[in-house]
Write a structure and sequence with these properties.
CATH topology of the largest domain: Rhomboid-like fold
Number of strands: 11
Distance between the termini: 29 Å
Structural class: alpha+beta
Helix content: 55-70%
CATH architecture of the largest domain: Up-down Bundle
Number of domains: 4
Strand order of the largest sheet: 5-6-7-11-10-9-8
Length: about 750
């Protein structure tokens, strides 16, 4: 089961990667796109041939070519951000080796140039990049290398030289598509006194795709602050830097904030105030902020040479634009006190981590339907055996990788929006509250809607509540100061995710039942949580989630220690038709009226009774029956069984694709069958092979004929894969012995 689910997860990751690479339109990565598509083809073949060898190869290739490069990229970014350029080069080099055909070798050379900058200085790095520029004929590579040359010149505070190099090689608004380059160029324009050029660049940055990207709000606001500092507008600059949380939102430290404020004072014509503020930079700077200290010393030196006597007035249109920029910056910072940094998204990351851990535990335990109950799944009969507390632990239940990926993506997209505005407590109250109340509604309405065999999972309901809350938060009526393009960039994918979550209520889309009434309740809870304003007075409302957290924790612990068989077998017996006879079956078996092919099952569902819990995990345990026929003639599916096969009598079409053989009844089942009052000697264990692989087994039990002229009626327990019999042999032995 674990291998098949890993294969499904690999297929999902590969499809997402191919879609992302195709949509990016990056011609450099075409070879890598073809490689990923080829691995996806291996996955498809592994599914079609049911080959374990191909499945293992496909999963291993997915890890090597997709998963590991993603992790190495994250490590390289982290190392680069912390200033460990040598490690960043190593991580990026290993990533380039794994991503064959991606064209990352040139990226490795660029990182090597940055490492040279760290070790030998600006001139060595410039020489390296100029050598790369001379050696390449590819336009895309040349543009990337020239960007690095511009950045090196700005790093060395050679502003005019950097501007000249940029303007000679790039279109006017090229930097508006490169946020980091744009901030450097904006500062260079400010240092050179070209404020009209700086305003044009900032306007292009705000109106372009970077300004519409929610992930870039901070760097766009930093560009606004840079423009205002060089325009000499001290009040908005000082206001933006007055508190630590505001500097954090702008990506600035105390030292860099003091530098910008000193620049603003100097450009406003207040030399003494500028000098006093700039002298504070050295005491505020950390060991890695040497460049900021050097920049402050340079500005102080310039003040000593030519102290300004007054601020140079801005042209009227430029002054009006500066006021508009100041207003936009302040609007962002006023909305931002509620926003946490990503490292503070306690509820979001906790929800995602628990959902991953729950599913991993379910796969590792590999206990079929009992495993579902171990992770807290809610059944319609839980209340009848005193386990109503499952509505609390059921919030984590999910049983297939597609459901896991969808729920994780939903939380990853919506969680930061909701938690940054309302806080961790409110998000916990929204997510857990929506899931718990949704499961309560399903438990009440399920029997009324004929869902007596439903197995409910609450993970989808948790995600729906948070997604709805995030969508409502982003509506203009709730957040009018939020940039329109950024709003659309978030709302559109959130709406698609919500539609996907709603579609999961269709039976068979995901393994566990997603109740329609539960989705409605979760929708209402998410809407209600987002309706309550995020004011400081109401932020403490998140503490109301504490009792809910304790209840969920207690129920989760109970699900781990309580014997799941009590709810596994709970429910009234039912009478069904089994091979021409009407018989009584106990839970967890449910009636199957007609033959059906079910994705993920090696065998078709046959008329009879199936374990309604086991089938949700990909295990098929089914009671079937038929009147014993004479020894089946040998055909395409030859047999060494001495008598006719029950399975082939129930479904003769299977004879064309499988071979049967008789073996010893498993010892554990024989003991359980004797305890259930049956005679193991009356059983016959028949296994079935397809393409040389055992895919199913049937335990046949012959019953005496009703009359001398009648054929004996035979009942059997169909198990696919055969290992599924080990999950609950006592339950299955009693089911077979009672017929």
């Amino acid at each position: 089961m674990a291998l098949r689910e890993l294969l499904v997860l690999a297929a999902v990751l590969l499809v997402m990667t191919v879609v992302r690479l195709t949509r990016s339109g990056d011609s450099v990565g075409r070879g890598y796109t073809v490689l990923v598509a080829g691995i996806l083809g291996v996955v498809v073949v592994a599914f079609g041939r049911e080959s374990d060898a191909l499945a293992v190869a496909a999963v291993a290739l997915t890890v090597l070519v997709v998963v590991l490069p993603w992790g190495l990229e994250a490590l390289a970014r982290l190392a680069f951000a912390r200033g460990y350029l040598g490690w960043a080069v190593r991580f990026a080099g290993l990533r380039a080796i794994l991503m064959l055909g991606s064209g990352l070798a040139r990226q490795q050379e660029i990182l090597h140039g940055l490492a040279l900058l760290e070790r030998e200085g600006v001139d060595a790095a410039l020489a390296h990049f100029r050598g790369l520029a001379d050696a390449t004929e590819d336009g895309g590579e040349l543009a990337l290398i020239n960007e690095q040359i511009v950045s090196m010149l700005f790093y060395g505070q050679r502003w005019d030289e950097g501007i000249a190099f940029y303007e000679a090689r790039f279109p006017q608004r090229y930097a508006a598509l490169r946020p980091a380059l744009a901030v450097g160029l904006l500062r260079a324009y400010g240092e050179s006194g070209r404020m009209q050029s700086a305003a044009g660049l900032l306007r292009a940055l705000e109106e372009g795709p970077v300004g519409a990207d929610p992930q870039s709000i901070g760097i766009v606001s930093q560009a606004r602050l840079t423009f205002l500092a060089y325009a000499g507008l001290v009040p908005p600059v000082s206001s933006a830097l007055v508190a630590e949380h505001r500097r954090d939102l702008l990506g600035l430290t105390a030292a860099s904030g003091a530098l910008f404020e000193g620049i603003a004072w100097s450009r406003a014509g207040h030399a003494e105030r500028a000098r006093d503020r700039l002298r504070e930079v050295e005491s505020l700077a950390s060991a890695r902020e040497e460049r900021i200290v050097d920049a402050s010393r340079r500005v102080i030196a310039e003040l000593g040479v030519a102290p300004p006597v007054g601020r140079v007035p801005l042209e009227p249109d430029l002054g009006r634009y500066a006021e508009l920029v100041a207003h936009r910056l302040e609007s962002f910072l006023q909305a931002a006190p509620k926003i946490r940094r990503s490292v503070g998204l306690v509820a979001t990351w906790s929800f995602m981590a628990i959902l991953i851990a729950t599913y991993v535990a379910f796969v590792l335990v590999d206990a079929g339907g009992l495993g579902l109950l171990r992770i807290g799944a809610l059944t319609a009969e839980a209340e009848s055996v005193g386990q109503s507390w499952r509505v609390f632990c059921g919030v984590w239940a999910q049983a297939d990788p597609v459901a896991v990926m969808l729920n994780l993506y939903a939380l990853w997209l919506s969680g930061p929006v909701f938690e940054r505005v309302y806080g961790a407590g409110r998000m916990v109250l929204c997510g857990l509250g929506g899931a718990v109340l949704g499961l309560l509604g399903a438990q009440w309405a399920g029997p009324l809607w004929g869902e007596s065999d439903a197995i409910y999972g609450g993970a989808h309901l948790l995600a729906v509540a948070v997604v709805v809350g995030a969508i409502w938060t982003l509506l203009p009526i709730r957040s009018p100061a939020f940039p329109q393009r950024a709003r659309r960039a978030l709302l559109i994918p959130l709406l698609f995710v919500l539609v996907a979550q709603i579609l999961c209520i269709v039976p068979g889309v995901v393994a566990l039942t997603v109740p329609a009434v539960g989705v409605l309740v979760a929708f209402a809870v998410g809407l209600g949580n987002a309706w309550i304003p995020a004011t400081p007075r109401l932020r403490g409302a998140g503490w109301a989630a504490l009792p809910l957290v304790l209840a969920v924790a207690g129920a989760t612990l109970a699900a781990l220690v309580v014997d799941p068989r009590t709810v596994y077998e709970a429910g009234a017996p039912r009478r069904i038709e089994l091979g021409g006879r009407v018989v009584t079956v106990e839970r967890p078996f449910a009636a199957v009226d007609a033959r059906a092919e079910v994705f993920g099952l090696a065998m078709p569902l046959l008329p009879g009774a199936v374990d309604a819990l086991a089938i949700r995990t990909g295990d098929q345990v089914q009671l079937v029956g038929a009147v014993r026929m004479d020894a089946a003639p040998r055909g395409e599916g030859t047999t060494d069984a001495p008598e006719g096969s029950l399975l082939f009598a129930v479904d003769p079409t299977l004879r064309r694709e499988m071979v049967e053989s008789v073996g010893e009844v498993p010892a554990a089942f024989a003991v359980a069958f004797r305890r259930a009052g049956g005679d193991p000697d009356a059983l016959r264990w028949v296994t079935y092979r397809r393409n040389g692989k055992v895919v199913a087994a049937v335990l046949e039990r012959r019953t005496p004929p009703e009359s001398a002229n009648a054929d004996p009626w035979v009942v059997g327990l169909l198990v696919s894969p055969p290992e599924a019999l080990e999950v609950a042999p006592g339950v299955y032995a009693r089911a077979l012995a009672s017929q």
